[in-house]
Amino acid sequence: xxxxxxxxxxxxxxxxxxxxxxxxxxxxxxxxxxxxxxxxxxxxxxxxxxxxxxxxxxxxxxxxxxxxxxxxxxxxxxxxxxxxxxxxxxxxxxxxxxxxxxxxxxxxxxxxxxxxxxxxxxxxxxxxxxxxxxxxxxxxxxxxxxxxxxxxxxxxxxxxxxxxxxxxxxxxxxxxxxxxxxxxxxxxxxxxxxxxxxxxxxxxxxxxxxxxxxxxxxxxxx
Length: 222
Fold this sequence. Notes:
By secondary structure, this protein is mainly α. 82% of the residues lie in helices and 0% in strands. It contains 9 helices and no strands.
């Protein structure tokens, strides 16, 4: 196999893969930011005792988590133009990734908030703190520390899910592999390089997640 594997072609296409890597990082960063902007309010609404807030948030989370990401992508890609809304493929991809990850982030943050001991919440109420003050000073600082590892795990999932955007002609890592495979008729070399780039991103995020877990464990031991 190695005798027929052309590493020279890979080096020729490295600039293309670097562009794809930058595009994947940018798309993932924008989508993760959007997911937080969606997930945090969805989490707050989900925890609310007001039915008009909790019911729509629960419906959004259930619908997103129970349908495939590819179906969601095609729904917006083909559905929005029929409604007269025309966005670029990249904008649609970022929007769909944000909506999808936002539902999972909402549940991750909700689990972190619920993990805070009820006694601390009761004590903050006894001290006269309102809901905003309790969230800012008592609940969220502890919840964020607990949720960083699963949030990084969700970031890994989002980076890998961004490969689906190649199906709507968005240029990113997987699209770079497709271009190389179609131009040189070398799919093994093209998608091997694509997989290697994703593996690199995965280990970077995994290492940061492991470092945070050790840091969190050390803080709890004090």
